[in-house]
Fold these 4 entries.
Entry 1:
Amino acid sequence: MELQLPEILANLDVDIEDPATCPPARWGIIGPGGIARQFLNDARDGTACDVTAVASRSKERAEAFAAHHGIAHAYGSYEELVASDEIDVVYVATPHSEHRDHAILALEAGKPVLVEKAFTRNSAEARQVLDVARAKGLFAMEAMWSRFLPHMVVARAIVRSGALGDVVQVVGDHGQTLTHVERMWNPALAGGALLDLGVYPISFIHSVLGSPGEIRAMGHRLSTGVDSSSVAALMYPDALGVATTNLAARTPTRAWIGGTQGRIDFDTDFYRPGGITVAIGGEEQVRWEAAYPAGGFQFQIAEVARCLDAQATESATMPWEDTIEVMGIMDEVRRQLAVRYPDEPSLRPRHPGGGPG
Ligand SMILES: NC(=O)c1ccc[n+]([C@@H]2O[C@H](COP(=O)([O-])OP(=O)(O)OC[C@H]3O[C@@H](n4cnc5c(N)ncnc54)[C@H](OP(=O)(O)O)[C@@H]3O)[C@@H](O)[C@H]2O)c1
């Protein structure tokens, strides 16, 4: 008997735990900028965790952030924060160019880390961070929060169920008007569209199809040399992935997973909390969405707290190998776009199925 859509959804093998029930963990933030505020709000509104310390390169900025948000401890250096007994885990919320050094700083001080996306500037730096985590036996994870959102978890379960048939095309787009943001222009901060925005569709495609074979990329560069737009075609033996990104336009930021028997369409913006529309056989359609408080980071924050409680060094949903592979895909896209950051060794052509050869 053929399963109908509501039955497919009812029979999915998914277990989305309420982030509010996660074990408590005391977080310390490195880099009190824009994204640190959302992290703090979602940790407090959506989980059993708290932010107990913040560090800035300036004592005044740390104290101002701490006072504004009611954080108990403010440090005028990142070194002081990672040495603090007031925290269990560090959130690295600095620009991409700094992620490797700040993550290693925390790990060397014996603290597990959650590192903002893009995890590092390139796959070689990602390996360096994860080598330290491995040597220290400490948890590390890329903050690719979208992977933990309920609609993403459900979409992956639908793919696994076989209801879409064979997945033959996965498409993701992410464009925002960010030309006014200095960090995006700056090669020294590893700016550009790819590491900030393009990482979402690339990681999304990777979460469904895994590591591609051949990659072809085209795009534009800003006057500073960083990428402003790109289209990346990811070739798989029986499927295609297409990722587009742009920092000069607010694009629809949609995504879909196309199979031989059905399709999943993600709402705008696909990487944020939202819903999906599932169509099987091109006719019957069903919506899936969940309502929950806070901005969506709570799911990844709870995942980290649960992994720490279980003494795991990596998350099964965002494992180290996936981070290295996603960084390897972006290395290859940048190599083809001729985008290289200062002091970065030349990017070597990627070997299909892995990082640079
Ligand atoms: N998950 C998401 O939805 C999301 C959204 C936006 C951004 N992000 C990611 O979050 C990270 C930070 O982005 P953001 O928008 O929050 O940046 P931001 O507002 O510029 O904040 C970055 C913070 O890093 C610190 N920092 C350390 N070294 C720095 C340097 N050399 N130059 C500039 N700042 C430096 C600064 O704090 P002090 O100088 O006070 O120490 C600054 O407040 C990036 O990796 C970005 O991709 C994620």
Entry 2:
Amino acid sequence: MISFDQLPGNAALKNSLQNALAGRFPQAVLLSGDDAAGLEGWSLTLAAGILCESAGRRPCGACLSCRKAAQGVHPDLTVIDEGENELKVDLARRIKAENAIIPNDGPRRVTVIRHAHNLNPMAQNALLKELEEPPAYAFFILTAEQPDALLQTVRSRCTRFALEPPQQTASDEEAAALLAPYLAAVAARREDRMMLAALALEKPPRRALLGILGVLQAALRDAVFAARALPQPPLQPALAEQTRALARTVPPERLLAVYDFIDELTDRVARNAAAAAVTCALTSDVYRLCFQ
Ligand SMILES: [Zn+2]
């Protein structure tokens, strides 16, 4: 049965995705991680969740849509998997043409592009507009073992989620407990306390920091929704108090600037940025983006 419960580890990511599926799910998602087989399971579960007919937890695993997705026979789910072959511009054109036709079964269509880092630059450019302004029914899930190989313009149009080897992730509770003092310090405009909290984030193994930065981005997204009074179930309910406080102190456009900055920081951490540089980024750079 197709379900998030079948996937190992990554509790924080699981929580973020399930909460996102309960609301207005982003139409373009980039799922990255080292493990191609792991990415396959996650992308399929996510696709089933987008297509699922249940009003409750999605994917439910039981409705006709979930069963078709699990059997690989859903007419509104296209999975592109060319292994490590180059993905060329004619593929991008084919995707565009397919998406011009309304879905068969339900209100949505999902295109999964596996090994998206193999899209050549011409194909990526051809997909840009489709990713930016897809028809209301069209959803994209790109998976990539080397997300840095994608053009920045493509990456920035996708909501990014990073998958980690299960044994190296911080649990959702751990990440929230570590981030709560940091977010509270930002909301209180206390750079000194931000520094202490940022130092505490550096303690877990390096890989876990990537997950924590992912939870931080989810919390920033919650704060933007709170600041704009948009009804949306929070991605990180455990940090709801801190995100509301943040929404009261920092204007939404600045929160979005911090969100983008955390994207860059994630890339730097993935490339083994020095701990001191990360602490500095989370302290003086974030302070400047919020308040100066
Ligand atoms: Zn279902």
Entry 3:
Amino acid sequence: MGHVIVIGGGASGMMAAISASYHGAEVTIVEHMERIGKKLLSTGNGKCNFTNARQSPEFYLSENGHFAWKIVSRFGQKETCALFQELGVYPKERNGYYYPYSGQASSVLDALRMELARLGVGIRTGQECVGVIPKKSGFCVKLADGELVGDKVVLAAGSKAAAKTGSDGSGYRLAKALGHHVITPLPALVQLKCAEDFYKGIAGVRIQGTVSIYAGSRNETKKGLCQNVLDKGGREKRFLASDQGEIQLTTYGISGIPVFQVSRYAAKALHEGENVMARMDFMPELSQEGLLDALARRALARPQKKAEDFLTGMFPGKLNALWLRLSGIERMTAAGALSSTALRALVRAIKQFETRVVATNSYGQAQVCRGGVDTREVDAGTLESQKVPGLYFAGEVLDVDGPCGGYNLQWAWSSGYVAGKEAANHASCESVKHGTGMR
Ligand SMILES: Cc1cc2nc3c(=O)[nH]c(=O)nc-3n(C[C@H](O)[C@H](O)[C@H](O)COP(=O)(O)OP(=O)(O)OC[C@H]3O[C@@H](n4cnc5c(N)ncnc54)[C@H](O)[C@@H]3O)c2cc1C
């Protein structure tokens, strides 16, 4: 029986340990927090959206094309649901999003912990892994106070997102020390900070809409690409990404699921020194002309209404006031006196609301990171390092991230399962040859 050491007791590490054990290995998890699976408890607002019925390559993003999809195709949503059901996690599906029926992320963690205990997986909590030394045969895993020896190592130490749950970026340092290139990790699934001073006045508003991210350098000239736009200063901005849903306006900028979904694109453009703009459409169901027509009829129906009351019933009051200000409309103007130029300005403010994105929120507030260990140095069939034979990777430490909706956990389960299986299969062959143990 070979010995597999899993560094990191998060979602991917626990799955790797279970899988390695199913495939005949003796397994030890090394976790530097006082308990395993801390991040899992905060997933899905404490409800754990653990996978999604909608699956395709576009949900798994990296600098390396379809790398992740090859792994997800080996152990995907169906296999994940079947395994969790076997572990006792009865699923509840809402619009394709899977949660435990209990509605509690803690029950997913409990099910994993019970399985680890049943399989006899060794769990060394409160143990920081500070180095991985490849030996002639197997590895020496250096801990803050001691060491472990094993045949294979699965590095599942996560990213830099939400470091208080344990993922402090040390996985990247361990990978670098082993010769791997790490693509700069950047916060993703995160809020965006914006430059304008009006946010304090509209903070707390939640509104349905579309948010689109554009980027460009200051001097970029118009190239005429159809989705690109000119910003207020007449500079061209490249379209990067767009999403629709409930946008939350905060004291510092914008948040909410659609903002999270596009944040990875803003993060990269900002990192590369580009100017980033978010353009929001707060009435996506109407075209510009449609909204103009609706506003004109509204003005005609109650011409005596003051401009400050004109939009009441359509949008939240705080936004109405801001839109009037941005459109240069005086609050006391009668609706019937609004010129078509004024109405067009209002339509622009509602449907082409532009804001300058200056930063993402910190890693601490991000749900995941884009970037990580470059997957071009990792075997897409087995997740084994192409630089250090016997070293495997799982989870977010790799350059793979997905949108909200259960895709990041699906990546953790898929990569954990495959890495654990491959490590165990190869460990058992080699331990017969060499004989290994723990000290
Ligand atoms: C608030 C929040 C909500 C989320 N909600 C969802 C959701 O609903 N659905 C979804 O799909 N995804 C969600 N995610 C993302 C998802 O949780 C992560 O993508 C996933 O947990 C990553 O798993 P991982 O095993 O790669 O890393 P982690 O879960 O971060 O685990 C890494 C582990 O390694 C340990 N470790 C790190 N370095 C060392 C070291 N040197 N020595 C020993 N141990 C070490 C850490 O303590 C940690 O336990 C959410 C994330 C957050 C922060």
Entry 4:
Amino acid sequence: MQTADGIAELLRLHNPDRSLDRRFYTDPDIYALELERIVMRSWFLAGHESEIRQPGDFLLHKVANETAIVVRSPNGGVSAFANVCRHRGSLICLEQSGSVRKFECPYHGWTYDIDGNLIAARSMPDDFDKSAHALNRVSVETAGGFIFVAFAPDPPSLQPARKNLSKPLKMFDTENLKVAARKHYPIAANWKLAVENYMECYHCANAHPDYARMHTLMLDPKRRDRIQGRMQERFADCGIEPYEVDRGPLEANADECFHSYWRVALFEGYKTGSRNGEPVAPLLGELRDYDGGASDFCFGPFSYLLAYSDHIVAYVFTPLDGRNCACEVFWLVRGDAIEGKDFDLDELTWLWDTTTLLDEKIIVNNWKGINSRFYKPGPFSTMEDWEQDYTRWIVNELRRDP
Ligand code: FES
Ligand SMILES: [Fe+2]
């Protein structure tokens, strides 16, 4: 446990050229501070609009102690509510997703409509005011068909990300995708280790060779340039627009959700991220051919997309407590693609299912080592620059006056 002075000292002493001090990963007071300064203020990619097409269709998104009910409203919009009953606080929705006409609390039966209004509560006093007991709202926004939630009432603006990423989102016609599969990966480690691992590919060749044989991110940038150039020559023929944006953690303003986009070449012979490099689904949007690339989208500290030419993998990290987090992965294909005819679920999900399971192992090993008395912050390699920026951003956020 840290005193306030101890935390200030820890933040002051942080060396940005090295990994974080153990206390950043293990101290409950640091975690409490992160919850307020980072986690609750961040946007989380909760799902895709295609998952809740009809009024009353809902899905849940859990982060730390909070769960949002994300629901299609009768007017066609998307609403989000805290999954906490206004009577005595029970969770209301217990299913991960579904379709309802109203939300009924399982404890004493208070009932809410899908706009969150309390519509029934038995045996309450005559002067009880139902209208003062609607569900609490959670911030919700959409971008390119993706649904984002944030638990603070004043999260950083998503608007710059929506604007700057609109071109590539349109290119892959993300509004008209559908979710073909979703998987939940629990990770018994502090959340920062999971995201930091996603930020660097220094580990890729060692940890998950299947990914490494197709993704050039495992090369250092100098060796990648030639392959990257050949991919870019194919852009015009394939219907890919060259585009990059870097409003990353250290570039974005404090009041905007940081974001970035770039397209990275796969090794020659790989059309997409699949077992043998061959297509696993129909081309997305108006694309005409496979350029052999994959686009990285970042929406803030927890939510990422990887867009191949024929499918998109969404990667979302969620802190659960100081010692546990989860990675939610979902795979999206064209809205009109038919399972069994246009894509096979095992082939579609093979690469990132395999890779995520292997990543989970190295993250947990990292967590165990960091808990040892012998752990000391170590120096970053030249292939860990994003991770380095990310850890600097975390420390800056913790230092910032609330
Ligand atoms: S806690 Fe929900 S009805 Fe009592
Ligand atoms: Fe990895």
